[in-house]
Amino acid sequence: MFDTGSTGFMLLATSLVMLMTPALAFFYGGLATRKNILGIMIQSFVSLGITTVLWFIAGYSLCFSGTGAIIGNLDKAFFLGINAATPFGNGKIPEYVFIAYQMMFAIITPALITGAFTGRVTFKAYLIFLVLWQLLVYYPFVHMIWGGGILQQWGILDFAGGIVVHISAGFAALASVFYVGSRKDRKMQPNNIPLVAIGTGLLWFGWYGFNAGSELRVDHITVTAFLNTDIAASFATVTWLIIEKIKTGKPKFIGLMTGAVAGLATITPAAGFVPVWAAALIGIIASTVSFFAVELKNKHGWDDALDVWGVHGVGGFTGTVLLGIFASKALNSAGANGLIFGGTSFFLKQLLIASLAAVYAFLFTYIMLWLINKITHVRVTEEEERLGLDQSIHDEEAYT
Question: What's the CATH code of the domain at 161?
Answer without folding.
Answer: 1.10.3430.10
